[in-house]
Amino acid sequence: MEWLTLLGGYLFIFTARVVDMSLDVVRVLMLMRDKRLLAAMVGFVEVSVFILALNQVLAGGLTDPGKVIAYAGGFATGNYVGSIIENRLALGYLTLQLFPAPDRATRFIEIFRQAGFGVSSVCCQGRYGERNILFVLLKRRDLQRALSLLDEVDPGTFFSVSDARQIHGGIFPRKGK
């Protein structure tokens, strides 16, 4: 029966670390999105769980390698789970920059605007002459839809996606579109 108690302790340490590290990822995301109060509340829960897990690991000294393995495994798994949660939350905004072939720029502008996205076009000079760079500011949860539109017109178009830390104004698709 002692092994059951031992196993339960390992499971508690592992689970607490998964929760703690998942909350850590969410807290950092909140800080990056300038949601300080929410980040502080998540941080409070995170550190409370961390202390409980660490207390279990240190209880009786560091003579039990199973506790260390459970702690480290929970840490690693928590990072993975946290990244999945972060992807599901899809908070914030992104900038999609398209560098289309000159004959496709107008089609890209039309299709993105028909889908409700705001598109800005900037004329520039590329290696082989005049080009347009298209800027599409979008919600993170709309990225896959925007990339699908890109694939409809020309899947070979060069593009880049970057995080937009703060925005003001703009045109975004309505829900249900």
Q: Number of DSSP helices?
A: 5
Question: N-to-C terminal Cα separation, in Å?
Answer: 58 Å
Largest beta-sheet characterization? 4 strands, antiparallel
- Gyration radius, in Å: 23 Å
Average pLDDT for all residues: 89
SS-based structural class?
alpha+beta
Subcellular location: Cell membrane
InterPro entries: DUF2179, DUF5698, UPF0316
Keywords: Cell membrane, Membrane, Transmembrane, Transmembrane helix
Organism: Desulfofundulus thermobenzoicus
Task: Report on this structure.
The chain has 177 residues and is of the alpha+beta class. The protein has two domains: 2-89; 93-164, Alpha-Beta Plaits (2-Layer Sandwich), CATH 3.30.70. Helices cover 56% and strands 19% of the residues. It has a four-stranded antiparallel β-sheet with strand order 2-3-1-4, covered by helices on one side. It is elongated, with a radius of gyration of 23 Å.
Task: Write a compact overview of the structure shown.
The protein has helices at residues 2-32, 36-58, 65-89, 105-114, 143-153; strands at 93-99, 119-126, 129-139, 158-164. With 177 residues, it is an alpha+beta fold.
List keywords for this structure.
177 residues; alpha+beta; Alpha-Beta Plaits; 4-stranded antiparallel sheet; 5 helices; 4 strands; 19% strand; elongated; UPF0316; transmembrane helix; DUF5698; cell membrane; transmembrane
